[in-house]
Amino acid sequence: MKQQKTAVRVASLAVASGLAVALAGCSGSGGGSGDEGLTMLIGSSGDAETQAVQSAVDAWSEESGVDVEVVAASDLTQQLGQGFSGNNPPDIFYMSWDQFQTYASNQYLEPYASDLANSGDFLPTLTETFTFEDEFYCAPKDFSTLGLVINTDLWAAAGLTDADIPTDWASLQNAAQRLTDSGVTGLSFGAEYARIGLFMNQAGGSIVSEDGTEVTADSPENVEGLEYVQGLLEAGVLQFPADLGAGWAGEAFGTGTAGMVIEGPWINGALEADYPDVNYQVVELPAGPGGQSTYSFSNCWGIPAGSENLEDTTGLVEFLTSDEQQLAFADAFGVIPSTEAASQEYATTYPENQAFVAGAEYAESPVAFAGAADVIADFNASLESLDSADPQALLSDLQSNLEAALEESRG
Predict the structure, then answer these.
(1) Are 287 and 325 found together in one domain?
(2) Bridge partners for 142 per DSSP
(3) pLDDT tens digits in sequence order for the chain, 411 residues long
(4) 33, 68, 253, 292 - which has most CB atoms within 10 Å?
């Protein structure tokens, strides 16, 4: 179910903190099933994704003569960690953006991606996401970005038109104010870094320098971003989902208690399944003083270091990441292809999702270096009380905690 997938993605920063424990007992990797075929471990959003992956793998097996067993994990983080700690990892697996740095820094991944025939076809931001120490490790299988989702019925009822679609912070606050009415708050999104951090970026800030060597969390730009969000909360035009009695922003949007939300393309399936009568459109996130910014979330096809089946697994990856196959996946379960050509074709085929694709040009991945997950989890907890907190104090704590984590990650 798409809503379940959203919860997994949103919570992944906190969940990943247990990964180091799971991997601590690893004595090696090099998964391989020899003549018995390949094993694949995926974290599926539901039956549609599982069946689509199985069908694609079956087609490749028929061509290659290599059997592949597809296992849909009930808890991908836990099961993948157990596979490595038991020195029996799967031959190929979903590797998420937030876990990648931890696995790569511990040398559990085969850096195969630059040798693929289609290695130059992927969107640059995704290639960067799965690059460690200047080496492109694993091929992105798909991606998503965040956009502004607008309830068009509430929009029209508030007297808003296309001319009012937010393009900057001022127009976002104006639209949120006009949408806020009895029983409706103008804007909602999760009380977490993976949403609020957008405004820090839009102010021109970041929490780690571009080269990854310095923590920059307590910058004036980041303070400005938090103060803007705090101002929306104080004005009553922004409420977090929990304050609306919702488990996530998509639920608040579906029940009509939020006129706009910041979410990714997975909201489409959730609304279709649970709130089919809600009319909406998706636009790019408005720019802040520092320009446009959104986050990208992705998985790559991971292969364990020293794999005995590298030729077969890289051949399978090339098949699965071909434009044709990625567009088939997009049709089956809604993901956005990771290659430049296929993502553009996707935007043409699904114009309602064009804003998500456009965001890839300026998207960044949330910070995810090894050891950052625990710090971000604590920061998320502090953001829940942003309405009454001191933004500078929150960021000062984040600065010192991330500095310690970054230093530890360097050994």
Answers:
(1) no
(2) 299
(3) 333 333 333 333 333 444 444 444 444 445 544 457 999 999 988 888 999 999 999 999 999 999 999 999 999 999 999 999 999 999 999 999 888 988 999 999 999 999 999 999 999 989 999 999 999 999 999 999 999 999 999 999 999 999 999 999 999 999 999 999 999 999 999 999 999 999 999 999 999 998 889 999 999 999 999 999 999 999 999 999 999 999 999 999 999 999 999 999 888 888 988 999 999 999 999 999 999 999 999 999 999 999 999 999 999 999 999 999 999 999 888 889 999 999 999 999 999 999 999 998 899 888 888 888 889 999 999 999 999 999 999 999 999 999 999 998 886
(4) 253
CATH number at residue 248: 3.40.190.10
Q: 134 and 164 share a domain?
A: no
Helix (H, G, I), strand (E, B) or coil at 125: helix
Residues 312, 180 share a domain: no
pTM, two decimals, is: 0.83
**Nearest-angstrom CA–CA distance, 249 and 198:** 16
Are 195 and 297 in contact, with CB atoms under 8 Å apart? no
206 contacts 380 by C-beta, under 8 angstroms:
no
Q: How many domains does the chain have?
A: 2
Q: Does an H or E element contain 261, and which?
A: strand 258-263
Contact 96, 12 (CB under 8 A): yes
Structure tokens at 68: 């592949």
Which of 288, 271, 269, 287 has its CA nearest to residue 279? 271
R_g over Cα of the chain: 21
Q: Which range marks the domain in which residue 48 is found?
A: 2-145+296-364
Closest CA to 20 of 387, 373, 362: 373
Is the domain of 132 the same as that of 270? no
Q: Pairing between strand 140-145 and 294-302? A: antiparallel
Which alpha helices (DSSP H) does 106-151 contain, by range? 124-129
